[in-house]
Design a protein that fits this description.
The protein has 554 residues and is an alpha/beta fold. 42% of the residues lie in helices and 8% in strands. It has 16 helices and 10 strands. The protein has an 8-stranded parallel sheet, sandwiched between helices. It has a two-stranded antiparallel ribbon with strand order 3-4. Helix 3 packs parallel to helix 5, helix 6 crosses helix 16 and helix 14 runs parallel beside helix 16. It is globular.
Length: 554
């Protein structure tokens, strides 16, 4: 009897409010509940919110194991989203009443956020099941992304997706039970993406223009300019086919699904292996005075941020703050244009990219490599594509960090530690989204970076540490650039004797669809040969490994 009584006391202590609230916050709760003159309505409401949330979680944990798998997923997502909702309500409550003398409102908010995150983590530890929740990394892709077929010689080739999948497999995707490989995005997510979320990010005129343009392409036609204006300008780099519209919708849908999975507790982090990329796609055609759309159609990362911050009553996740960290070698003008044209307290956009006010183009504009770089943008412009928009930060909701002519490991590492981490921690996001571009790799054909594959793994881990410190590790990534994929198929016009080893090919096995073509000019093939040693595929492997390493919530 004594042992049972002791166990009950331990159980009660486990669920007491002071297990979640810090001594500082719990002391304020005690002060206001004692009838002290310093009592304030806001703190009283916060205590009631936290007590109610803890009680709901305790009640759910007692019956959770009796539910089926589908019911468990639904209930887990519900309680975790309640954590986020109550986290926001508690912050709002401090607008009522007065703050006790000598007590910082900012400190109360920080401690309140930590308390809600402790409940979130307790929910995950109590309610996670095998193959879902803690310790789980997911990779999301979809074959429909392969329907976006660019022109021969484009940097942004269809084989990027099979290469990304193989890279993810080398990190355990599909074979490690804790690294899930999801190969199809459900149709309801496509419906939400096309009809609800994308119209919030892009102007209706832009969406209609793109849809009309793509629907007019004959089924067997590829490499058609998609983003040229009425004068035929601006479409040189962004070409596609009849399947491009669906591919872009799927990319957005995958990012929405990733947000659902991460916030809803199905996994700790997610990599979305989708194309076409999106961070140059803004509210309308060629945002922020860019000369082209830079391979991009719809902005999946920005759309996911809008979905995540949409109130739960309107079908979103109800988050208060989302941070996007963009480490593509180019500035994400489209993302900044959609989320941060003016200051919006919901968003922090961070971009680490090549460029700077003192940079005007590239080292040697007469070199052969310059002609390859100019394929992104199609013609010369001031600064590095997409222009001068990433040289400065217009307000506190944007942190643009141009890193010079070439992005180096030391430059990006220093920026992450000295500028990005403090800014993200001060912003205290509920979710971090990575716009994951790998075109700053030393062997990428753009020639604008000096990073190794392991450097990208380190960048991923640093971002995950920011997520752990601010939002219980909630983070996912969306593929942007990265073009260092060696040729995967033999040339049709090359006549070689049997068993010749003259032409070296990247072996993608069953991840390369039988009907996929990889027709690229000989000179471009030569540029890509150096990526056999290390390139895009290895970058993806290290990126996913970084997520896997950081999939254990602390």
């Amino acid at each position: 009897a004594i042992k049972i009584a002791s166990q009950k006391e331990d159980e009660e202590a486990l669920w007491s409010i002071n297990k979640f609230a810090s001594d500082f916050l719990f002391g304020l709760f005690q002060t206001q509940s004692s009838g002290n003159d310093l009592a304030i309505d806001g703190l009283a409401y916060m205590e009631k919110l936290l007590t109610s949330l803890i009680a709901k979680l305790r009640q759910l944990s007692e019956v959770f194991k009796g539910y089926g798998a589908s019911k468990q997923r639904t209930e887990l997502k519900s309680i975790l989203c309640q954590c986020m909702l109550i986290k926001g309500h508690g912050e709002d409550s401090l607008e009522f009443g007065t703050i006790p003398a000598g007590v910082s409102k900012a400190t109360i908010i920080v401690e309140w956020r930590k308390s809600c995150e402790r409940v979130y983590k307790r929910a995950l530890s109590k309610l996670s099941s095998k193959g879902a929740g803690n310790d789980i990394t997911s990779v999301i892709t979809d074959l429909r992304c392969n329907g976006h077929i660019t022109q021969s010689g484009s940097f942004e080739r269809p084989v990027r997706i099979p290469a990304a999948i193989k890279g993810a497999r080398l990190a355990g995707a599909g074979s490690d039970p804790n690294v899930l490989l999801i190969t199809q995005v459900e149709d309801p997510y496509l419906d939400v993406a096309e009809n609800v979320v994308i119209p919030k990010a892009h102007k209706i005129s832009y969406i209609k223009r793109l849809k009309t343009k793509i629907s007019s392409i004959s089924p067997n036609k590829t490499g058609v300019p998609l983003t040229d204006d009425s004068e035929g300008e601006g479409g040189e780099d962004t070409m596609g086919s009849r399947g491009s519209y669906t591919a872009a919708i799927v990319g957005v849908a995958a990012s929405i699904k990733a947000a659902d999975m991460v916030v809803g507790g199905q996994c700790v982090n997610v990599f979305c292996a989708v194309r076409p990329p999106g961070h140059h796609a803004g509210q309308e055609l060629r945002s922020m005075k860019a000369i082209s759309n830079g391979f991009c159609l719809f902005n999946a990362a920005a759309c996911a941020a809008l979905y995540a911050t949409t109130p739960q009553s309107q079908g979103g996740l109800g988050l208060r703050r989302v941070c996007i960290i963009d480490f593509d070698v180019h500035h994400g003008n489209g993302t900044q244009d959609i989320l941060c044209p003016t200051f919006d307290p919901r968003f922090l956009y961070v971009s680490l990219h090549a460029g700077g006010a003192h940079i005007n183009g590239y080292d040697d504009e007469d070199s052969e490599e310059e002609s390859f770089r100019l394929k992104l943008g199609g013609k010369k412009q001031e600064g590095i594509f997409p222009g001068r928009c990433g040289d400065t930060s217009p307000h506190k909701g944007v942190l643009n960090i141009p890193l010079g002519q070439r992005v180096t490991a030391s430059a990006i590492g220093t920026a992450l530690v000295s500028q990005v981490t403090p800014a993200v921690e001060a912003f205290s996001p509920d979710l971090i989204i990575l716009s994951a571009g790998f075109d700053a790799h030393v062997n990428d054909p753009l020639g604008m970076g000096g990073l190794s594959a392991k450097d990208f793994g380190s960048v991923t881990e640093v971002a995950c540490q920011m997520a752990y410190k601010t939002c219980s590790g909630r983070i996912f990534s969306v593929l942007e650039g990265g073009y260092g994929v060696p040729c995967c198929l033999p040339r049709d016009d090359l006549f070689l004797p049997p068993n010749s080893t003259e032409e070296k090919l990247l072996q993608l096995g069953s991840d390369l669809p039988a009907n996929m073509k990889d027709d690229i000019p000989f000179t471009f093939r030569q540029k890509l040969d150096r990526c056999h040693a290390e390139g895009f595929l290895q970058c993806i492997t290290e990126h996913v490994k970084g997520f896997v390493k950081c999939s254990k919530r602390k």
